[in-house]
């Protein structure tokens, strides 16, 4: 698929995708005979994982670290696992914090609702 199709498929702008390629998050993109990028399901899956990591709050620096380990191969599985486990713990703590914020907002909203009734 071409850049436009790929961009629509993964939900990222062409500019972002070119940036990810420039910094090494996306590597070895094939090119067609006219020199345009040609993406496969492999890149779709990889960028989907990158997006998931970004949406869960992983820093780009850590995603790059993961990508570098991934590039080295199976001998880095343990390090990749550890990196993801650390991120999972940070994400769980963030979810607890956000849940506490949500509960505080609910209490405030309930307080306002109670004042309307009286």
From TrEMBL:
State whether keyword DNA-binding applies: yes
What are the UniProt keywords, alphabetically? Answer: DNA-binding
Q: Which SMART domains match?
A: HTH_MERR (SM00422)
Do you know which Pfam families this protein is assigned to? MerR_1
CDD domains linked to this entry? HTH_YyaN
Please state every residue range assigned to the domain named HTH merR-type.
1-69
Q: What is this protein called?
A: MerR family transcriptional regulator
